[in-house]
Design goal:
alpha/beta; about 400 residues; 14 helices; four-stranded parallel beta sheet
Length: about 400
């Protein structure tokens, strides 16, 4: 049995607890959070941490396979430039270097307190690390292709990759992720939607205004990029609708879906998604948004609509580190009115709920093994993060 106290314990399942003790078994199972006055200190040894204790973090959007691309793309060039540069760099990445970068950065993620990750894959480069890792990984096999003639070939190839992850990591730990609202043909969307029924999906959504323009009338940088990659395709004329309104009909309303980035999402987009899908989640990756577009989502708009918010790190092609704490710092810097317990809820329990792991992770509730993170150098009077706040995993999760 272990008795842990801190300046503040944030259980997520309840209010922040100062002067309290978190009791866990030797293998990390939570027995409860109790007032320190209820604990007989003559019968047990309480270990005190200077800082804040919270459950392990859940990263709901990551591209771990791009860890080799750290610091290779300049900031602020916009999404179109970023995509084009990344495609060029992909052709130069070598196998051994990929594995080394993946191992290094995944290890740093774990040390910082991330106990579960929804990771996007276009190849099997992360399979070796994931098969040996103690952390939980759910793999989204990314699917894209604008040419309808290749829809079945693309999905068949993705199915082979998905099978590799499931065969090595376990059934139910992989599914398809349509890359973005604009990057699949109608035929491919239909195939993905059929295969996704009953499984999780994740999709990049409204990362910049180009996406809205593309669906409005078929113009803009996305149309140009589509033509460059598919010169024989007829021009896309647009739908006259918003992005999700244009593609949601391919999916059942019961589809559990994660919309990632949402940088230019407005009230009309939230209204449509929340009314159409019964179980929609919204993932913010603020550091990647600033890196690529120098812009952030209107986070308070999602809060006002009581949206289910999660956090992600995106990739090291578009970020300087894979740290959920750093994502929380950025949100708090630009939206200081958001309290730390709310941010931690997004970073823990909401992510666990999306992955269907809320019975194991996300909060200090009896019977769970969520992992325990120590946040140091926070402002304990206001419960705010400081620029030099750090996080470290002190007890691993049990999944």
């Amino acid at each position: 049995m272990r008795y842990l106290s801190a300046d503040c314990i944030i259980p997520v399942s309840g209010e922040p607890c100062p002067d309290s003790v978190l009791i866990v078994t030797d293998d990390g199972e939570v027995l409860g959070v109790f007032p320190k006055s209820d604990i007989n200190e003559t019968l047990c040894e309480i270990y005190h941490y200077n800082g804040i204790l919270c459950p392990g973090f859940v990263n709901t959007h990551c591209h771990l396979e791009l860890s080799w691309a750290k610091e290779l793309i300049s900031e602020g060039g916009g999404l179109d430039s970023f995509v084009r540069k990344l495609e060029i760099l992909r052709k130069c990445a070598s196998g051994p270097y990929l594995a080394t970068a993946i191992k290094k950065e995944a290890h740093e993620m774990a040390l910082s307190g991330i106990v579960a990750t929804a990771d996007t894959a276009n190849d099997n480069h992360t399979l070796g690390y994931k098969s040996k890792s103690k952390e939980y990984f759910y793999t989204f096999v990314e699917v894209f292709g604008s040419n309808p003639a290749f829809a079945k070939v693309i999905l068949d190839k993705a199915e082979l990759l998905k099978s590799q992850f499931e065969n090595n990591l376990g059934s139910g730990k992989a599914s398809f992720a349509p890359h973005a609202t604009y990057s699949l043909s109608a035929e491919l969307f239909k195939l993905v939607a059929t295969a996704a029924n009953g499984h999780l999906i994740s999709i990049h959504h409204q990362e910049n205004e180009d996406e809205n323009l593309f669906f409005k009338d078929g113009s803009g940088p996305i149309a140009s990029r589509r033509k460059a990659f598919n010169p024989d395709l007829p021009d896309f004329k647009g739908t006259g609708k918003r992005p999700m309104e244009s593609i949601a009909g391919y999916f059942e309303r019961t589809q559990k879906i994660l919309l990632v980035h949402n940088t230019v999402t407005e009230q009309q987009d939230i209204d449509f998604v929340e009314n159409y899908f019964w179980n929609a989640y919204w993932c913010f990756c603020p550091n990647a948004n600033l890196f690529i577009e120098k812009r952030l989502p209107d986070v308070n708009l999602f809060r006002a609509n009581d949206c289910k918010i999660t956090l992600g790190t995106d990739s090291l092609a578009s970020n300087h580190q894979l740290s959920i704490l750093e994502e929380m710092k950025t949100i708090q810097k630009y939206f200081p009115e958001i309290a730390l317990p709310e941010l931690i809820n997004w970073a823990t329990l909401n992510g666990a709920k999306f992955l269907g792991l809320e019975h194991k992770l996300g909060s200090f509730e009896k019977g769970k093994k969520p992992g325990i993170v120590l946040i140091e150098n926070a402002d304990l009077q206001t419960l705010k993060l400081n620029p030099d706040s750090t996080s470290q995993l002190i007890i691993p999760a049990g999944i």
